[in-house]
Design brief:
There is one protein chain. This protein is an alpha/beta fold and 280 residues long. Helices cover 39% and strands 18% of the residues. The chain has eight helices and eleven strands. Helix 3 links the parallel strand 3 and strand 4. It is globular, with a radius of gyration of 18 Å.
Length: 280
Amino acid sequence: MILADIHTHTDYFHGQNTVQEMYNAAVNSNLQYYGFSEHTPLPEGFSCFLYREGDMNLAFENYVHDVLELKEKVNEHNQTTLSRIPEVLLGMELDFTPEFPEYMDGLIAKYPFDYVIGTIHFIGSQSIGRWNAEEATQEEKYAFFESYYECTRQLAKYGKTDIIAHPDFVKIHCAEDFHAWIETKRAQECLHETCKVLKETGMVLEVSTGGLKKACNEIHPNPKMMEIVASYQIPISFASDTHDTQTVAYEFDNLAHFARQYGYKNHTIFINRKPVQLAF
């Protein structure tokens, strides 16, 4: 049984429910840990069309305040009663923007995070979510996939995040093309090169049911990539990437079965930036 869901969102940016509502859903699950990992504000020149309008810096500050307040209440409850409820972890999903290292450093240092998830939603200034794959040639698509994994290697070498999110997010609008690319010799070389860097830098790789809710309709990462990841014995974390109360710990029985197929028996969480292994 998977005991922790640590990539989750709230209504502060583009989720549907409040911090308290999301936690209430976790209480009704079999989880022992529930980690909040709201998106971070973006540096100047970057924008996400999904985010709510308004001051994202203030929204993020309020998000942290709510999670820390909830965390204190839950800790007090678990210390004073016999009925334990899921422990609260404070995290964030940091958009990797290598042009702005000081901006990223400042966000990481500002709050007492239990963990930081690094994510790639942009390749250069191009939003993956807004990339029109239908207008790209096969050569352009394959080059885009390679650029994504070059960014992944850069993120790992940045060295200030704990987890790398949905490691084949680039497939969301063109899964068939991604599946064709991943069978090529160059793709295999690219993924092996990436996994070597992940291993060398001690990164934890997220395995997520978030992709089951997208057009690609498959777990992140793709099975072919998961084979390579497992061959390097890269530690994994589990996530639903939920944005509403209905998908907390989404399809976690299937997720556990998927990971066991590749020899995994443990998943990683972080408490005060220190890794903790949990059996599943």
